[in-house]
UniProtKB/TrEMBL annotation:
<comment type="similarity">
    <text>Belongs to the methylthiotransferase family. MiaB subfamily.</text>
</comment>
<feature type="binding site">
    <location>
        <position position="96"/>
    </location>
    <ligand>
        <name>[4Fe-4S] cluster 1</name>
    </ligand>
</feature>
<dbReference type="Pfam" id="PF04055">
    <property type="entry name" value="Radical_SAM"/>
</dbReference>
<keyword id="KW-0808">Transferase</keyword>
<dbReference type="InterPro" id="IPR020612">
    <property type="entry name" value="Methylthiotransferase_CS"/>
</dbReference>
<dbReference type="InterPro" id="IPR005839">
    <property type="entry name" value="Methylthiotransferase"/>
</dbReference>
<feature type="binding site">
    <location>
        <position position="58"/>
    </location>
    <ligand>
        <name>[4Fe-4S] cluster 1</name>
    </ligand>
</feature>
<dbReference type="GO" id="GO:0005829">
    <property type="term" value="C:cytosol"/>
</dbReference>
<comment type="subunit">
    <text>Monomer.</text>
</comment>
<keyword id="KW-0408">Iron</keyword>
<feature type="binding site">
    <location>
        <position position="174"/>
    </location>
    <ligand>
        <name>[4Fe-4S] cluster 2</name>
    </ligand>
</feature>
<feature type="binding site">
    <location>
        <position position="178"/>
    </location>
    <ligand>
        <name>[4Fe-4S] cluster 2</name>
    </ligand>
</feature>
<dbReference type="GO" id="GO:0035597">
    <property type="term" value="F:tRNA-2-methylthio-N(6)-dimethylallyladenosine(37) synthase activity"/>
</dbReference>
<keyword id="KW-0949">S-adenosyl-L-methionine</keyword>
<protein>
    <recommendedName>
        <fullName>tRNA-2-methylthio-N(6)-dimethylallyladenosine synthase</fullName>
        <ecNumber>2.8.4.3</ecNumber>
    </recommendedName>
</protein>
<dbReference type="InterPro" id="IPR007197">
    <property type="entry name" value="rSAM"/>
</dbReference>
<keyword id="KW-0963">Cytoplasm</keyword>
């Protein structure tokens, strides 16, 4: 190696990555980190040490998007401090704010060097090279297929070992256009990754010691592709294939849409022990009027009937969901219908949000926007009910013996933390097993956000 090559050796470069939003951003951040590692960047958790700061952003609610700008104010100061000592720092904005706002970000925050949308991160090393030359870069117009085509290449360069559980994106984008939601605009239309790519990545993960894979997609159950048998596969069929991979003991998928929950997927829940009995199936509202205004294209009764069928197939399945309160026009009666649906379904976990009008979505233009204090009150009542249900689900497990996948050391010495089939952390004595083991655990007590167990 020549001296020049050593001097230019990128080995010393550091990247700081902060991730906002959904699991797909977590996955993308990891792939970006992998791609950057090939380019000589190693990760750091200290912004001040970073030659490159990458914020992988979320645009779903106003608060999420605005957080990026307040964070940028802070980072700009650190960039100036570094500049004073002759060290460069590039600032890159990735993810859904990048896609939604593009060049506007650089106008509002001139310290930003690079804006890169979620479909373009495989072009990051090249874009960085140009940014280092002093150019302001905005990359937001590539096709999703292009990103997927490049995924196996970045994955082949070595999957950085991150634990015994992993995410795997199988589908991206959304064609549903719920009237409150920015995702169809930021992530583009639905694209499925090919079966062979998914299987290859899952095999690599399993070889690296991963025991549990969560398939990701904005509408993951809309995934479809041609199987090796020449037939059209849906997610159910794909899950059966992935369950054959040696070492992969647990499979999950998220997020699904009620309209794409087909029979084959319900059969997978019935017949596939590796498919964990946990289903995140957002409904948003229990009022048919509001569901219609949201363009969800199903009724509350459709949703409840669907869950009845899923529970008939897999009785121990735990349900999770998403809710929005205060969508334009939501009356007290509409909100009560949501409360009633929650009582009928009984959730093991759920996420609930105040409606946030997003620029460019039909909901933001609707009349009868709901006052903030009404939203606050409804959210409080809904969350109290959901918390109560979550608590009683956890309590119902006390005395039972369950499988726990051991994931990491506990916060306190002598403890390890596993994961229940229903995603709760399970605290055990460290002698119970080693990381990656699936152990029998008897639940003895419920903690604030976890279960305490003894080896059974
Ligand atoms: N693709 C998934 C998740 C989309 S975003 C789905 O279809 O369910 C995750 C959640 O954020 C949504 O389920 C919804 O509950 C919430 N959300 C989306 N847009 C929102 C908005 N404008 N205001 C408040 N909550 C929103
Ligand atoms: Fe957004 Fe609706 Fe698509 Fe989910 S299904 S990503 S809520 S538009
Ligand atoms: Fe946010 Fe984009 Fe995910 S808006 S929730 S990061 S798809």
């Amino acid at each position: 190696m020549s001296d020049e090559a050593v001097a230019a050796s990128p080995a010393a470069k550091k990247v700081f990555v902060r991730t906002y939003g959904c699991q797909m951003n977590v996955y993308d951040s990891q792939r970006m980190t992998d791609a950057l590692a090939a380019d000589g960047y190693s990760p750091t958790s200290e912004i001040g040490d970073a030659d490159l700061v990458l914020l992988n952003t979320c645009h779903i609610r106003e608060k999420a998007a605005e957080k990026v700008y307040s964070e940028l104010g802070r980072i700009r100061e650190i960039k100036a401090e570094r500049a004073a000592t002759g060290r460069e720092m590039l600032i890159g904005i990735a993810g859904c704010v990048a896609q939604a706002e593009g060049r506007e970000i650089i106008r509002r925050a001139p310290a930003v060097d690079l804006v890169i949308g979620p479909q373009t991160y495989h072009r990051l090393p090249e874009a960085l090279k140009r940014a280092r030359g002093g150019e302001k870069i905005v990359e937001t117009d590539y096709a999703l297929e292009d990103k997927f085509e490049h995924l196996p290449n970045t994955a082949r360069t070595e999957i950085i070992k991150r634990g015994v559980t992993a995410f795997l994106t199988v589908q991206e984008g959304c064609d549903k256009f719920c009237t409150f939601c920015v995702v169809p605009y930021t992530r583009g239309s639905e694209v499925s990754r090919p079966v062979a790519q998914i299987v290859a990545e899952a095999e690599r993960l399993a070889e690296a010691g991963v025991r549990e894979v969560t398939l990701l997609g904005q509408n993951v159950n809309a995934w479809h592709g041609e199987g090796p048998d020449g037939q059209e596969w849906g997610l159910g069929r794909l899950l059966f294939r992935l369950a054959e991979i040696p070492g992969l003991a647990r499979l999950r998928y998220t997020t699904s849409h009620p309209r794409d929950m087909d029979d084959a997927l319900i059969i997978a829940h019935r017949d596939l022990p590796a498919l964990m009995p946990y289903l995140h199936l957002p409904v948003q509202s229990g009022s048919d009027r509001i569901l219609k205004a949201m363009n969800r294209r199903h009724t509350a009764a459709d949703y409840v009937r669907l869950i009845d069928r899923i529970r008939a197939a897999r009785p121990d399945i735990a349900m999770s969901g998403d809710f929005i309160v205060g969508f334009p026009g939501e009356t007290d009666a509409d909100f009560e219908a949501t409360m009633q649906l929650v009582r009928d379904v009984r959730y093991a976990q759920a996420f609930s949000f105040k409606y946030s009008p997003r620029p460019g979505t039909p909901g933001a233009e609707m009349k009868a926007q709901i006052a903030e204090d009404v939203k606050d009150e409804r959210l409080q009542r809904l969350q109290a009910l959901l918390m109560e249900q979550q608590g009683s689900f956890a309590v119902s497990l006390v005395g039972r013996t369950i499988d726990a996948l051991i994931e990491k050391p506990g916060r306190q010495a002598g403890q390890i933390v596993g994961r229940s089939p229903w995603l709760q952390p399970v605290i055990l004595d460290e002698t119970a097993g080693k990381i990656g083991d699936i152990v029998k655990a008897r639940i003895i007590r419920v903690g604030k956000a976890s279960l305490f167990a003894q080896p059974a």
